[in-house]
């Protein structure tokens, strides 16, 4: 039996407003995830999905319509000179594109075994997004109007898609995470 | 002006040659080694490998005499324009020519499309990811040191100096000794301790490296130069020696203990005891040298000492029956009146012979054949004949008399025999005490004390149901028998009078009837027979 008086309720409301205003009630920032083994596990699962797709799609499993995927090629000389935040944006937009593409492919694939692999890849992409967020990179917001980042191209088969998926993780994502300032600050 | 124009072709030629030479295709010994290594593992042409993060080298072999200008090498990155690389050649032994092309600006993680044309024909077409074709240099600074323990060696080396690949390496360690080679894969670490090596042996250690295959992949590098190291000799030898000494000592102690505890058993098994009859024949072998006759002659008294020895036949028993007026009816003793009624002294064997048949006639034939003194029963039956029917039943009926004999029925269950006797209505039950007689009667001095074979039992009384025997007469017959060879089994006759007034001990020799089998052990017994007769008035 909890009786509150009118004055009590007013006090609680004022308190909540003050807290919201001062942002004392915000959740604490995530701890940076710097262990390379985390991403290595995602890369391994992406590779296994690619191999499974190769076994299933001997002809290539061409897609009904081409899907936008990020560019995966990395020139180290250029990458090292690049801006970290730009790279973070590039990585996050690429991940978002891949997630979209995988969702689109899942609809057209009938095998239940592949479904589980695709779902796993999708959830892994989201987990990588959370890892990136933990490293205090500015969050990527997908464009509302549907325009894509310039560094994209279109794939026309599922084999290509998953090859892109694997190598995107191996390359750009891994480079971003292994040399993230948040991790470097902790180690040095 | 004219000079410039004249110079132009020369300049062009110069530029052309310079350009040819300027292409960084210097094929040194290192490349040669790697190419040879790759020839064995990769079969897709053109064979390509990356030495670091910024280069790619592709080569192929042809036997056409070395015309590099015929070939065209084009490469196209994903979603990009195609590029061309200048082909170079390296002459090899024979007519073989190695053509190669080295790219200096490479992009990883993106598909690379490589095409080789000879003239206008497409010779080779290959798609690869450069991050998956690494062929690295062998690890540098391999050092091998001994740890403190024997059979162990500690290795350490430097990883390949590639910036983004520090945690993506795996190594293989090979240790070679005389005749055997062992290889072990090490993940990630640049140092390793070899264990379980043979102590005191020389090992040659080598290491090679390869990307772990997850993000980066490639081929195994060449082995480092071998480094030899001798492992520490086994220092556990004295330890093992002392342990083995202690264990053998313990085993010897155990075996000795077991041997001693089972010594008798073992000796018995090894040297079995041959039974010898010496103990039954005292002095036979030692004194008389086996001469049985002599021994017999000299040890006649000894027969008394060893009644068991004589047991095979009936033992003669001297029976002296002292019976006074108790025996009113004339005891019909066959030997004649010379013997007082009831008095039997020193019955000779001859008398026994005469008496026995008569006794036999009157007796039931159900004597326990094991009784040695059945003849005694006969005597008493004879005594009773005047008064009572010479039947055992009549004797049994005289309840008042009972005689107890100490008996040894060690070969036969006495109780059973007694029961048999009771069934057969044996007449007598002798009650006496051996100890008593032995002390009070010097005659007993010559009592044959039974040897070990005969056992003097303590007083044993066997009483038979009194009520079965109607009392008719009472006759007292005192008989002291010191008979080492006779064991009697008499049915008891209850007697109201237990007047053991006359106790005599006599040595007697009795000849048992042939048909009767004597008991195994002759007891010494003395006792009184008391018989009740109807007509007699007991004293």
UniProtKB/TrEMBL annotation, chain A:
* Record flagged with keyword Metal-binding: no
Pfam families linked to this entry:
EPO_TPO
The residues the entry assigns to the signal sequence are 1-27
One GO cellular-component annotation of the UniProt record comes to: extracellular space
Intrachain disulfide bonds: 34-183, 57-61
Superkingdom as given in the UniProt entry: Eukaryota
One example of the protein's molecular function in GO is: hormone activity
GO:BP terms for this protein? erythrocyte maturation
Where found in the cell? Secreted
The keyword Phosphoprotein appears for this protein: no
Q: Which UniProt keywords apply?
A: Disulfide bond, Erythrocyte maturation, Hormone, Secreted, Signal
| Purpose of the protein | Erythropoietin is the principal hormone involved in the regulation of erythrocyte differentiation and the maintenance of a physiological level of circulating erythrocyte mass.
Q: Which family does it belong to?
A: Belongs to the EPO/TPO family.
Protein name, entry field: Erythropoietin
TrEMBL record, chain B:
Report the InterPro entries cross-referenced here. Erythropoietin_rcpt (IPR009167), FN3_dom (IPR003961), FN3_sf (IPR036116), Growth/epo_recpt_lig-bind (IPR015152), Ig-like_fold (IPR013783)
Major localisation:
membrane
**What is the recorded name of this protein?**
Erythropoietin receptor
Q: Which gene encodes it?
A: EPOR
Where is this gene product found?
A: Cell membrane
Q: Does the record's keyword annotation contain Calcium?
A: no
Instruction: Report the coiled-coil segments.
Output: none
- The membrane spanning regions, by residue number, are 239-262
According to the entry, what is the taxonomic lineage of the organism? Eukaryota, Metazoa, Chordata, Craniata, Vertebrata
**Alphabetized UniProt keyword annotations:** Cell membrane, Disulfide bond, Glycoprotein, Membrane, Receptor, Signal, Transmembrane, Transmembrane helix
Pfam families to which the protein is assigned, alphabetical: EpoR_lig-bind (PF09067), fn3 (PF00041)
């Amino acid at each position: 039996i909890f009786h509150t008086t009118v004055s009590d309720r007013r006090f609680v409301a004022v308190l909540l407003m003050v807290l919201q205003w001062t942002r004392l009630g915000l959740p604490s920032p995530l701890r940076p995830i710097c262990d390379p083994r985390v991403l290595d596990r995602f890369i391994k699962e992406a590779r296994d999905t690619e191999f499974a797709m190769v076994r299933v799609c001997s002809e290539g499993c061409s897609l009904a319509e081409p899907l936008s995927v990020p560019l995966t090629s990395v020139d180290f000389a250029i990458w090292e000179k690049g801006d970290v935040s730009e790279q973070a944006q590039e990585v996050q937009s690429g991940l978002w594109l891949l997630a979209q593409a995988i969702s689109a492919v899942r609809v057209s694939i009938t095998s239940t075994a592949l479904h589980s692999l695709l779902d796993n890849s999708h959830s892994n992409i989201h987990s990588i997004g959370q890892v990136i967020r933990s490293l205090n990179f500015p969050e990527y917001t997908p464009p509302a109007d549907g325009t894509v980042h310039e560094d994209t191209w279109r794939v026309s088969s599922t084999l290509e898609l998953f090859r892109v998926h694997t190598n995107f993780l191996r390359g750009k994502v891994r480079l971003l995470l292994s040399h993230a300032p948040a991790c470097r600050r902790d180690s040095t | 002006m004219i000079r410039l124009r004249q110079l132009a072709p020369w300049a062009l030629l110069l530029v052309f040659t310079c350009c040819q030479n300027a292409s960084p295709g210097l094929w040194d010994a290192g490349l040669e080694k790697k190419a040879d290594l790759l020839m064995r593992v990769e079969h897709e042409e053109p064979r390509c490998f990356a030495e670091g993060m910024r280069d790619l080298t592709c080569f192929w072999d042809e036997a056409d005499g070395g015309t590099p200008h015929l070939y065209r090498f084009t490469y196209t990155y994903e979603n990009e324009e195609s590029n061309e690389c200048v082909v170079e050649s390296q002459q090899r032994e024979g007519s073989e020519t190695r053509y190669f092309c080295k790219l200096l600006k490479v992009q990883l993680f993106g598909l690379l499309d490589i095409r080789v044309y000879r003239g206008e024909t497409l010779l080779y077409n290959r798609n690869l990811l450069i991050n998956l074709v690494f062929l690295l240099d062998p690890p540098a600074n391999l050092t091998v040191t001994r740890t403190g323990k024997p059979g162990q060696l500690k290795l350490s080396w430097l990883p390949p100096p590639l910036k983004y690949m520090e945690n993506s390496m795996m190594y293989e360690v090979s240790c070679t000794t005389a005749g055997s080679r062992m290889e072990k894969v090490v993940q990630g670490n640049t140092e390793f301790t070899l264990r379980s090596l043979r102590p005191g042996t020389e090992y040659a250690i080598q290491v090679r490296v390869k990307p772990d295959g997850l993000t980066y992949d490639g081929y195994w590098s060449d082995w480092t130069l071998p480094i030899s190291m001798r492992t520490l000799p086994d220092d556990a030898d004295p330890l093992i020696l002392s342990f083995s000494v202690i264990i053998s000592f313990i085993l010897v102690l155990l075996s000795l203990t077991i041997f001693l505890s089972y010594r008798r058993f073992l000796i018995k098994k090894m040297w079995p005891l041959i039974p010898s009859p010496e103990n039954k024949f005292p002095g036979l072998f030692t004194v008389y040298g086996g001469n049985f006759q002599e021994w017999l002659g000299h040890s006649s008294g000894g027969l008394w000492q060893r009644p068991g020895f004589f047991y095979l036949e009936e033992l003669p028993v001297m029976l002296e029956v002292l019976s006074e007026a108790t025996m009113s009816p004339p005891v019909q003793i066959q030997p004649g009146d010379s013997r007082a009624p009831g008095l039997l002294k020193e019955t000779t064997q001859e008398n026994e012979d005469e008496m026995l048949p008569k006794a036999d006639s009157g007796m039931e034939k159900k004597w326990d054949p094991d009784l040695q003194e059945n003849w005694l029963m006969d005597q008493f039956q004879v005594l009773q004949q005047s008064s009572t029917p010479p039947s055992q039943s009549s004797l049994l009926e005289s309840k008042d008399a009972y005689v107890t004999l100490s008996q040894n029925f060690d070969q036969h269950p006495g109780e059973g025999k007694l029961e048999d006797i009771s069934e057969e209505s044996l007449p007598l039950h002798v009650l006496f005490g051996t100890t008593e007689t032995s002390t009070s009667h010097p005659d007993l001095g010559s009592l044959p004390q039974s040897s070990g074979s005969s056992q003097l039992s303590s007083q044993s009384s066997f009483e038979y149901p009194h009520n079965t025997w109607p009392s008719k007469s009472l006759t007292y017959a005192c008989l002291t028998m010191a008979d080492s060879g006779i064991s009697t089994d008499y049915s008891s006759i209850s007697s109201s009078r237990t007047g053991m007034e006359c106790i005599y001990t006599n040595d007697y020799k009795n000849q048992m009837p042939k048909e009767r089998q004597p008991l195994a052990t002759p007891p010494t017994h003395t006792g009184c027979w008391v018989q009740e007769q109807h007509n007699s008035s007991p004293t």
